[in-house]
Amino acid sequence: MRVAIIDIGTNAVRYLLAERKGNEWIDIEVGGSITGLGHGLVERGELSPIAIEATIGAVTAFIRRLKALEARKFILLGTEPVRKANNSAIFIERLEKTTGMPLQILSADDEARLAFIGATSGLKIHFHIDALFAVADVGGGSTEVSLGKLQRPERWLSIPIGSRQLTEKFLVDDPPTSNQLENCKQFALEQIQPVMSLLREANVLVLTGGTAAQLGVFRLNLRQFEPSRIHGLPIRPNIVREWLEKLSSLTISDRRQVQGMERGRETVIIAGLILLLAIFELSGKETALLSARSVMHGALISMSF
After folding, report:
1. H and E: helices and strands count for the chain
2. Is pTM beyond 0.85 here?
3. Which of 31, 41, 134, 284 has the largest CB neighbor count within 10 A?
4. CA 221 from chain center: how many Å?
5. Record: fold of 122-295
6. Which of 8, 2, 4 has the alpha carbon at shortest distance from 95?
7. What CATH code is assigned to 2-105?
């Protein structure tokens, strides 16, 4: 049986089509697009009509494609923007009426737990059975940090800051000024401080989410996202710093032309990289692993079908 999971986040709508073979789930296709559902949410407290239309349009198109690929069961997940917006009920009603499918809204705790399960699944590197992992899932509207052993989260915390929120709050010039970059970094460090103990307790740091995936594309000089090559890829903070310096010196239109840049991510990638650097700094780690998996794989593994 083929199962489709669609994850509706602050920046992007992602989908995963997987098929069970024996006791394993095999990825058939992973995709998505940036729709910016959370654009302006911090300022207005509401989802914009344009973002709502773009997001529902993307979900509808993905459902059509997934049905053509013989998906038999669908799970639609909503995260931070749906939890937070004052008008989320309007979005949910429109989405469910258009698609004919219910939307499952994940709590911050559920999002952190599923991100950990997904991000630590399928890693080919051999780890000690008692190794502790810290998974940092940097999204557009929130950042979840979880601690535990492989696919067994024990503690977690969700911080309501993400790449889109930081961009709209601090990085208002194009390109951003040095003062804006520094203020953004200091704010990120202050906000992430509550999860420092989780990050430092871990033996292995795992980074996941859209920024982490994009960093993997850059690191391998790819033209597009290739999950099998990025999942488990080691990364050091100097690589994050190099790309932050390069991209923050470019205008949005020039960033859009960088090889491998996901369409729409050029507007929020700088804040995302600042968050990854802040996580590195607070963790005290010199190396992390990039994960191409997150909430969708966690949901797939955790739910009964």
Report:
1. 14, 11
2. yes
3. 134
4. 20
5. Nucleotidyltransferase; domain 5 (3.30.420)
6. 8
7. 3.30.420.40
